[in-house]
Amino acid sequence: MAELEHLGGKRAESARMRRAEQLRRWRGSLTEQEPAERRGAGRQPQTRRRSPRVRFEDGAVFLAACSSGDTDEVKKLLARGADINTVNVDGLTALHQACIDENLDMVKFLVENRANINQQDNEGWTPLHAAASCGYLNIAEYFINHGASVGIVNSEGEVPSDLAEEPAMKDLLLEQVKKQGVDLEQSRKEEEQQMLQDARQWLNSGKIEDVRQARSGATALHVAAAKGYSEVLRLLIQAGYELNVQDHDGWTPLHAAAHWGVKEACSILAEALCDMDVRNKLGQTPFDVADEGLVEHLEMLQKKQKMLRSEKETRNKLIESDLNSKLQSGLFKNKEKMLYEEETPKSQEMEEENKESSSSSSEEEEGEDEVSESETEKEAVLLQPF
After folding, report:
1. CA–CA distances in Å: residue 168 to residues 75, 200, 338
2. 2-27+55-182: which CATH architecture?
3. CATH for 188-306 (1.10.10.10, 1.25.40.20, 2.140.10.10, 3.40.50.720)
4. What is the pLDDT of residue 279?
5. Euclidean distance between CA atoms 358 and 364, whole angstroms
6. CA dihedral 49, 53, 54, 57 (to 10 degrees)
7. Which of 22, 78, 109, 350 is the most exposed place for a label (fewest CB within 10 A)?
8. Residue 224 exposed, middle or buried by CB count within 10 Å (0-12, 13-18, 19+)
9. pLDDT, tens digit, 9 for 90 and up, residues 29-53
10. What is the pLDDT of residues 266-289, one digit of tens each?
11. What is the dihedral of CA 243, 246, 250, 254, to 10 degrees?
12. Rounded to an integer, what distance in angstroms lies between the CA atom of residue 28 and that of residue 123?
């Protein structure tokens, strides 16, 4: 029994360490990442004699009460209007934490008080993901009996059964997959398929209607880069998405792809000529936050990008030169045409004047002839005998 307890403790510790690593992410809290000196910069020292009051946010108080296992205090806070589904900076609810702490009593209390059993944290983990990872079979069974979904996918594309290490846990979850009629492959592809549909629509309409994630400020381009949705990424770039768009922490899509080690996404962004030297709010470039195994690849991409930029500049100069040449040629032709059009009316006017002049002289001659004939007739009449 002692050995089993020891193994259970090791699994829980392993799960906590894994969660800690996964929650070290680009959507995390900047305040927690900043050094103490920076956090305190610009603050005026307290000069009041009385000790300053420290007022914790209601959500933090509620989470602390749940973590301590004080159900009486939790009841009071709920009666005062506390949100049972409130989250911390990592998106963890009280139910997530109770599960990680293996506090079945608190888990039951929260579920009975209508906590969202399928709520996902910033990494897409539900409480059932946590139970499966920790190997807490009794908590997993309780969740399943109260409607937990076994087909929800986290940010790594994992359903709860993917995280199960114990055969009993894996068997339990896979049995429920069959009972619930879940298509795991379809579940894993669901988000990507939806994003593909949106990207195609934006490309065809010429209008991007993306909505940033409220907590992190991440865009569809960040998500596609971080999760390796290569086709989505290419379509979004074709649709005209801003390559260097930054989330609330100043992370670009390249920061996300580099941090999560998504090699192909890094290549797509670099070859589209994204800025590889953008710094986030902590002054970090994509190289600084990159997965260790990806740094060399990023350096290679940066060299390749310089060549691509040079080729693009040369190509643009040739196009510009050719265009100027055509414009100059077109300008000369236009000038010749204008001169021709100016000369043509003048020639026509002169011809018309000559015609008019010729016509008038003919009329004058005819008039003179008529006058002379008339005079001759008059003379003849006058000369006739009476």
Report:
1. 35, 43, 91
2. Alpha Horseshoe (1.25)
3. 1.25.40.20
4. 97
5. 10
6. -150
7. 350
8. buried
9. 343 343 333 333 333 333 333 333 3
10. 999 999 999 999 999 999 999 999
11. -30
12. 11
Task: Give the C-alpha separation, 319 to 354, whole Å.
Answer: 52
Question: d(Cα 78, Cα 66) in Å, to the nearest integer?
Answer: 11
Instruction: Give yes or no for a contact between 77 and 65, defined as CB atoms under 8 angstroms apart.
Output: yes
Contact of 224 with 248, CB cutoff 8 Å = no
Question: CA 207, 210, 231: angle at the middle one, nearest 5?
Answer: 85
Which residues of the chain register pLDDT less than 50?
Answer: 1-8, 22-56, 371, 378-386
Q: Are 136 and 13 in contact (CB under 8 A)?
A: no
Measured CA to CA, the distance from residue 12 to residue 130 in angstroms comes to 10
What are the backbone dihedrals phi and psi of residue 242, each rounded to the nearest 5 degrees, phi first? -65, 115
